[in-house]
Amino acid sequence: MNLLLLTSCNKKFDRDDYSAYFGGEVTNPLNRYVLFLKDNKVIDTIPLDRNNRFFKKFDSLAPGLYTFKHEPEYQYVYFDKNDSLMVRMNSSDFDESVIFCGRGEEKNNYLMEMYLKNESDKDKMFAVFDYDVVKFNKYIDSSFAVRKKFYEAKKEKAKWNDEFDYYALSALYFPYYTKKEIYPVVHEFRTGEKITGKLPKDFYDYRKEIDYNNKQLTNFSPFVKYLTYMLNNRASEKISNENSSPSDKALELNIAKLNITDTLFESQEIKNTVLNNIAFAYLLEDQHIINNKKFLDRYNELSTDKSNQNEITKIGNSIQMLKEGNPLPSVELLTLNGETVDSKSLIKGKSVIFFWTENAESHFVAVHKKVMDLKKKYPNYNFIAINVDDNQAKWTNALDNYKFENVTELRVKNFEDLKEKWVITKIHRAIVTNADGTISNGFVNLFDVKFADNLK
User: Fold this and answer.
1) Residue 316 sits in the same domain as residue 352
2) Which pLDDT band, with edges at 50, 70 and 90, does 191 fall under?
3) Are 106 and 160 a contacting pair, CB within 8 Å?
4) Which of 6, 90, 185, 356 has the smallest count of CB within 10 Å of its CB?
């Protein structure tokens, strides 16, 4: 770490107020700023200087858990009164590179170390989920005991307060609870054995001890991950229609999650946050107009978040605009020459619009090859590729490395506008239009085995 950062780490500050300092250095930056957030709301946008360093003095910063983000990556940072923290990070290996120094470093480095330990468990756990319940419990209890000793040693050394200890304990316990929630689902998937009926009666006793209405946990990742699996687990126990289509089953499962959330959370503020998380995840995956409407109807009955800024409301409204027979909303696109064109001017016949990014090269190549095969079978269709990246030179260079014929290549001018109007939430999405520019199917996957049915 450079001299400036080391000097800042050792500097003494006045403890008579609530001022705090936050700064650091970003190696291989992806943009020119670091966002500082509280409860997912941006408090400050801190610019990088020409040496990729950033620094901010907060005249008054309430003690608590915050988030810093160098998009698209993020991590947590905890501030006590008058903490002065510097952080070093590398966007190429973000989580593994984050190191704190300064007043408050012990707490924050503990959170990072615990996070990395829990992440390293993921690959090891696949085989463990195959175990019978006795062997499974023995394994995760042993692993938890090691983690708990690590926590106790760090707490004894740092002497942190009860406020931070709540997060320290949550980072210890919730990954352990999450493994228990995942176990019956993954065990059945991998072995074919339904294990739920063989679980000990006390297997889920920890659920009774969790304070689901504590606002401190609402946006804390270990809790959010646990909650995701716990709700999925409990909802799975409530649905029984084995003969439903995958889309109908997803609808039933997610409405069950909404209903469980309604009974589990007393705080309407926390309930709204959880409902939003469920809705956002569902709308990212299931793109079926009729089912989405049923889901959103139930969501709107339970949620009191009626603000115009509610992301779920905006997605729901956009989905309804993409119903069959509606005109495809207009967005601005760029040609290979950098000329701005209106999407409406491009649809002069039956069309298939698909998307790609240079960050997923295997998909980029595979989707173009798929389209060229389809073009041979359905020559009356136009195939329009839209790159969703923000760099014109990189886009044209990527295309120069390949020769894709019979495809109109364009790049999005404003991705946020495209995402909002066309509900582009995953790269495998495609849109099929009629000759007059109206929508034939607004939500379809080119790699679906039945995709060609949309072109007949």
Assistant:
1) no
2) very high
3) yes
4) 6
